[in-house]
Amino acid sequence: MSNLPQSLQQQLEKGYSIDYGRVVDSQQSIDQTRKMLVQFNNDPRAAAEVVFIPEKHRGTLCVSSQVGCSLSCKFCHTGTQSLYRNLTASEIVGQYMIAAWMEGDFPRKNAQQHRVSNIVFMGQGEPLYNFRNVSAAVGLLTDKEGIAMAPWRITISTSGVAPLIPRIASELRVGLAISLHTADTDLRSEIMPINKTYPLSLLMSSCEEFVKLAGPQNQRITFEYVMLQGVNDADLDAVRLVKLIKDFPAHVNLIPFNPWPGSTYTSSSAARVTAFCNYIRSQGIHASIRTPRGEDILAACGQLKSSHDKPAEVLP
Fold it and tell me: Is the backbone of residue 186 left (phi > 0), alpha (psi -120 to 50) or beta?
């Protein structure tokens, strides 16, 4: 900024810095999905993974909200990594800035089709356990004087921090995804310990409040459901799921389990996943089967994990 007085330049340089984080590892899948390990604040332990998923008509960036996670969901690789710390709002936005620069979205033009068009808070961590910073990051990303991303292009996924779910509608105005994975409360407590703190009944009450507060563009809730062979994929599981969500404006996203080192689960067969999906659709509920992306680089849903054990080396 050479148009500023030199004294002000020096003052700004001393007191402020522009630092999106450093990409210390980057891998590209055979399907063009890119996974990056981003280190923050020159702290080797403060590193989180971010994934860019390019598609024909849009590009989705999966961002992390924490380094590690405290929830210990049994089917999730991140759950095997202890929580190190929350990411700040600037570190969350930094993940977007890195990806957008890499994909050529800057300088931004109003009529331009941006490569990074959607953001999902589905990376490492529980976004609602870092609500203050996630909220601030959403504000920065949607500010009309800045990135100006439409709120409906952002989705926050939660494992079920029930008290904060209505605020996603009333304050942030973005989309909501619920990591549900079973409609059986006992099974959910087994594979998702958060259900012991915020039981299924409380979670669904919060979803009802969300729908009341949400606008027409973000009213529909996505219920994410990982398909685990012999665990939650029986016909009865499908019946229970429909009964639980039938009164909601809902979309069910069935996710074939993506294996990771040390995992004990197996994905349901393609035929079982299809039958499960067809039943949900037959009951008048929108449902889809997620196509795994980035499996070969451990970038698919449930596979993210950054290591605290050793310092990362900065890429040249």
Answer: alpha
- Residues with a catalytic annotation lie at 49, 301
Query: In this structure, what is the dihedral angle of CA atoms 118, 221, 77, 257, given to the nearest 10 degrees?
Result: -100
Nearest to residue 125, comparing CAs of 198, 67, 80, 187?
67
For residue 170 the two structure tokens come to 């009333």
| Angle, CA of 294, 157 and 49, to the nearest 5° | 40
Strands 34-39 and 22-28: antiparallel
**For 77-154, where are the alpha helices, taking DSSP H only?**
89-102, 131-142
Q: What is the dihedral of CA 51, 54, 55, 58, to 10 degrees?
A: 90
pLDDT in tens, 83-140: 999 999 999 999 999 999 999 998 877 667 899 999 999 999 999 999 999 999 999 9
Q: Other C-beta atoms within 10 Å of 72: how many?
A: 16
Cis peptide before 256 (omega within 30 of 0): no
pTM for this one? Answer: 0.91
Q: Taking the mean position of all CA atoms in its chain, how far away is CA 227?
A: 18
